[in-house]
Amino acid sequence: MSFTVRKDDATGVVHVRIDGQLIVGNRHDLKKKVLDAMDEGERKIVIDFTETGYIDSSGLGVLVSLSKKIREVGGDLRLAGLNDDLRTLFELTKLDTLFTIMGSAEEAAGSF
Fold first, then answer.
1. Measured CA distances, 36 to 23, 53, 74, 91 (Å)
2. Reported CATH class of domain 2-109
3. 62: helix, coil or strand?
């Protein structure tokens, strides 16, 4: 399980890629990485789930929390690369109405 964070200087979009699972044991790591980017003034964030196989309820909770914090400072969060199972999870929990979900990280970055 790892997180990769990079900023596209041309667009100002921060990309966070999750490799593995987003679960109770690592949700704080994701939160810290996103909050650190926000502390640096970043307001456009894409979380890429292309390499993510599973998200538990605590992982969903941290995404909701981050979305709220980003919106409070005038920013926006996009999710990208959800596989069919993860997309179904977001639909069943109605979180697909809270988040902008795009097919790829590039598509998400271009939507700001």
1. 20, 25, 16, 29
2. alpha beta
3. helix
